[in-house]
Amino acid sequence: MRFLTGLVLMVCMGMVQASELKGVGLFQTLDNPWFLVALYGEKERTADKEPAEARLPEKLQLKVVEDKISIRRYRQLWQDVFAVSQERDVWAAHGDDLQSFFQLVKGPLEQNDLLVIERKDGATVVSLNYREHARLSESFLDVLVTTLTGRISAIPELRDGLNGTLPEDEQRRLLRQFDKGEPTLGRISETGRWLRRQPSVVTEARISQL
């Protein structure tokens, strides 16, 4: 437990140093909450070094709030939000990224699982419970952020939360909820073993038809 606490503290300190919270929102469909989502970014600076209002997206964090999210449900949720917010040319341009992103979950997600999608070393790195599970194109993070925060959004409440436009008391409530609970050491080991599993042929065929 001490090791886990120390690990969480180190991760959180790194987040504070590297980026700034822009907003937090609830990823839910038909009043069923699935993830709490936090968006981090660095403030863009003007020529005179004064910070501008815009923040460049650097990291998305998704914490599971449902008891379980099946593999099929995880993929369907993302397919649905992409279908509403993105054109077919985006699907085509990022087909390999999307396939890897859909396939990194090789078992049901459980409450408090933490998915982190961040810009790092010229790539979009996707980690699950503190272990790297995929390394995608750098622009894929921007695609995800645009999908969730753009004018046309499948989940307007999530868009407003990530853009920081929810009422302050609601933002604080969501932040408190986000900070509750961490994956156990046993769960971290369990999802780490997913890295040794190969994607199924059925899954590959299904994604290739999107």
Short description:
By secondary structure, the protein is α+β, with helices and mostly antiparallel strands. Helices cover 44% and strands 30% of the residues. It has one domain: 3-Layer(bba) Sandwich (Chalcone isomerase).
What topology emerges from the helices and strands here?
Layout: H1 2-18, E1 20-29, E2 32-45, E3 51-64, E4 68-69, H2 71-85, H3 88-93, H4 95-103, E5 109-110, E6 114-120, E7 123-128, E8 131-137, H5 139-149, H6 156-162, H7 168-179, H8 185-192, H9 201-208
Antiparallel strand pairs: 1-2, 2-3, 3-6, 4-5, 6-7, 7-8
Helix pairs in contact: 4-9
Number of strands: 8
- Secondary-structure class: alpha+beta
Query: CATH fold name, please?
Result: Chalcone isomerase
Across the major sheet, the strand order is: 1-2-3-6-7-8
Corresponding CATH architecture: 3-Layer(bba) Sandwich
Protein model, in words:
The chain is α+β, with helices and mostly antiparallel strands. The protein contains nine helices and eight strands. Helix 4 (95-103) runs antiparallel to helix 9. It starts with a helix and ends with a helix. Strand 7 and strand 8 form a beta hairpin. The chain has helices at residues 2-18, 71-85, 88-93, 95-103, 139-149, 156-162, 168-179, 185-192, 201-208, and strands at 20-29, 32-45, 51-64, 68-69, 109-110, 114-120, 123-128, 131-137. The model is unreliable at 1-17, 48-53 and 201-210 (pLDDT under 50). It has one domain (2-208): Chalcone isomerase (3-Layer(bba) Sandwich), CATH 3.50.70. It is globular, with a radius of gyration of 17 Å.
